[in-house]
Amino acid sequence: MKINALVAQDAAQPLSSAHITLRAVQPQDVKIEILYCGVCHSDLHMARNEWAVSRYPLVPGHEIVGRVVETGDAVSQHRKGDIVGVGVMVDSCRQCHFCQQQEEQYCEAGFTATYNGIDKYTGDSTWGGYAQHVVVDQHFVVSVPESLPLAGVAPLLCAGVTVWSPLRHFNVQPGDKVGVVGLGGLGHMAVKLASALGAEVTLFTTSPGKGADARRLGASRVVVSRDAAQMAACQTSLDFIIDCVAAPHDLDPYLATLKTNGRLVLVGIPDHPHQSPNVTPMVFRRLSISGSSIGSIQETQEMLDFCGRHNITADIELIAGEEIEQAFVRMLNGDVKYRFVIDMQATRW
Ligand code: NAP
Ligand code: ZN
Ligand code: ZN
């Protein structure tokens, strides 16, 4: 089936409207009319081949909310008319240790990404959510609490679960002192979710103007990370930090803010490596540095249900598809309040 999508033809050209062909609906598949798709910084990295893995043409988008319009014969989990979500994964091997443990994001064969992956039925690319429709195996489709405003739900599918997963995996508890680095798409969800879990949140930002927003979103302390005196004032005060920055930077000033046994979790994926941190304070305070990749389908559903109960969505700026390039520029400048979301129905293809 041919549909309209926003397509990157190569790393240098702006995204433009073009036709793509989706696979025919298989027995396990759900066909979704896309209502909203969030704009993740990963989409920008991929559209511009900043991780050197992009294959063109490429359709970005992995924060998808839409309505089920068709189901295959074997689909039991979703029905026509349901409001559903799709995140970063659309398939995995289903057999390895991690798939069996419901941790598909760590599939030993590598999960199939929502875009720039290989569709196992067609051998063609998978196409992302900057499009009118998507066809996805039911296992990778989650249910959206209908009490929530849907445009603000879209960013939960990547930004939300990417910060939720390490908060849960590393067992952050009420009262824990949690730092969040960078108030962008991921960072603002980390502030909201960590504070809803009862943590006391410190936001580190390079943008002094974001302080009032950070407090409104749930932070109790805001630190301008380029101000050495402010950084020095919070030495050894935190249990756990999530670093959501998309650019290479020095990790040592953040390690200095961790208490003994503290952990720094990196979720930002810069195009060039961070410089190696100084191990001496890590040794003497038994510090850990971890990475964390998105979250499982089960964690995505848990996070959505939690957001439904706590009335949490992303703070968004709604755009039409034609505005994507301006959105990318603002995102590069750290000027997003705090996630762009494409309204598919407002888009002129
Ligand atoms: P974003 O909205 O652009 O936010 C990034 C934030 O980082 C900015 O708002 C800014 O916050 C801060 N920042 C930017 N440049 C900086 C610099 N040079 N030095 C210090 N801080 C800087 O991006 P996002 O969508 O949240 O994504 C963040 C990163 O996570 C990207 O690399 C993305 O690819 C990655 N990601 C990873 C996963 C995963 O599974 N691990 C999933 C999704 C995305 P302030 O203005 O507050 O400083
Ligand atoms: Zn993403
Ligand atoms: Zn697997």
UniProtKB/TrEMBL annotation:
Keywords from the named record: Metal-binding, Oxidoreductase, Plasmid, Zinc
Essential cofactor(s): Zn(2+)
Taking every annotated instance into account, which residue ranges of this chain make up the domain Enoyl reductase (ER)? 13-342
One of the record's GO molecular function terms: alcohol dehydrogenase (NADP+) activity
* Family matches, as Pfam families: ADH_N, ADH_zinc_N
The organism sits in which domain of life?
A: Bacteria
What is stated as this protein's family in its record? Belongs to the zinc-containing alcohol dehydrogenase family.
Record-linked PANTHER family: ALDEHYDE REDUCTASE (PTHR42683)
Protein name per UniProt: NAD(P)-dependent alcohol dehydrogenase
Q: Which organism is it from?
A: Candidatus Pantoea soli
